[in-house]
Amino acid sequence: MAFQPSVGQQLSIDNATYHFTVHPSAPGMPYGQQGRKATVFQLASGSERRALKVFTPRFREPRLVGIADRLAKYAALAGLTVCRRSVLTARRHGGLLREHPDLTYAVLMPWIEGPSWTEVMLSRRSLTPGQSLELARGLAEILVGLEEQGLAHGDLSGGNVLLPALAERATGHPTPVELVDVEEMYGSEMERPTDLPGGSLGYAHRGTPSGLWGPEADRFSGSILLAEMLGWCDADVRAGAWGEGYFEPQWMQMDGKAYDLLVKILENRWGGRLATLLERAWRSDVLRDCATFSEWLVALPDTSPRPAAVAAHPAVPAVSPVTSSGRAAPPPQALPPAPVATPKGAAPSPTPYSFVPIGVEVLCPECDGRNAADEIYCQTCGFQLCEDRPCGRCAAAMPIKAHYCPQCGRRAV
């Protein structure tokens, strides 16, 4: 059975007492986000907020301790706050783990306020040119810092990029952008994962079918993210976006209206140099053909352009946002502060924590492991157990990767 805390339940970790917080859009449920490998919960101790990443049995590995030790040296780099972490082990937290064995090798780290880039796109949230430039510059500076250290995130996507600059309440966070899901980051001292990520939908390069591992791993996905951020201040770009990313996955690195529009907007609003950098990535055969992030950072203007300087361009017909399941998403709505993004290897798709009574069990067809009926992935082997899940408001069936209920429009928890 998976770890199932209740709102207000307390944990004592490293001489501090924390409690599980309530989800802002789901009263009575703990603030958590479930993925294939782990569930991330929000903990509170006074005014401090922390993230507790609880792994499923298959991914509770001793190597997480060594990974945390190696990541610690990079916590001072801009945008890598979550590298400041501790792992719950039998040697240091024996009493807690005897009471809650499911917390073995769980990771305690800073909580990052703000939506993910995926949430911004799915909600069609508008940005000013100044905001677009702030986010793009913040991301470019982070990626330059990684690149200069011979590092790469390895699975850059909208779900792994959080935006403190767009948090609902001011937090005084030092950077406008933060990266999460860094357990499988590339570096000369890092352990090569057994299962390499091949890139997320809308950000995967055609030349990496066997997975991403190397200093250039972020070149293509990072270029797409930077172009999306710069283009998002334009209403036509927002209207023409696919859903969880700007580009529909099946049309990646192929000519089409979406690509032509984004190139044109970059050229008209931000200059031909930035449009050329996107074109280099789009036409590339291997990751090394993409521009370095230093080239992106140098090409960014110091200030956003005046509206009058933007050349007119034909409007693109508005399309309904769609999720990775192909179903239409509801109209934009206000977003609550986003929890830490979905663990690596899973599509960035928030899921409900529990909508059925505790005690009902189902057997995994892959390994025969026992799981609560509300589990989406097997807690033993990670196998996906169901295609749909019930909406917490109207109980209509929602595709696993949907961000909104197709019946009532409620955003997935």
Walk me through the topology.
Layout: E1 10-13, E2 16-20, E3 22-23, E4 26-30, E5 32-34, E6 38-45, E7 48-55, H1 63-72, E8 86-87, H2 94-99, E9 107-110, H3 117-122, H4 129-148, E10 161-162, E11 178-179, H5 219-231, H6 235-240, H7 257-270, H8 272-283, H9 293-299, E12 361-363, E13 370-372, E14 388-390, E15 397-399
Antiparallel strand pairs: 1-2, 2-6, 3-4, 5-6, 6-7, 7-9, 8-9, 10-11, 12-13, 14-15
Helix pairs in contact: 4-5, 4-9, 5-7, 5-8, 7-8
Describe this protein's structure:
This protein has nine helices and 15 strands. The chain is an alpha+beta fold. Among the domains are: 10-110, no CATH class; 117-190 and 198-309, Orthogonal Bundle (Transferase(Phosphotransferase), domain 1). Strands 1, 2, 5, 6, 7, 8 and 9 form a seven-stranded antiparallel beta sheet that branches. Strands 3-4 form a two-stranded antiparallel ribbon. The chain has a two-stranded antiparallel ribbon with strand order 10-11. Helix 4 packs antiparallel against helix 5, helix 4 (129-148) packs antiparallel against helix 9 and helix 5 packs antiparallel against helix 8 (272-283). The protein starts with 9 loop residues before the first strand and ends in a 14-residue tail after the last strand.
Distance between the termini: 21 Å
The main pleated sheet reads as: 7 strands, antiparallel
pLDDT < 50 runs, ≥5 residues: 307-360
Instruction: Provide the succession of SSEs.
Output: EEEEEEEHEHEHHEEHHHHHEEEE
Strand content: 5-15%
Helical segment tally? Answer: 9
Can you count the beta strands? 15
The named CATH superfamily of the domain at 117-190 and 198-309 = Transferase(Phosphotransferase) domain 1
How does the overall form come out from the CA principal axes?
A: globular
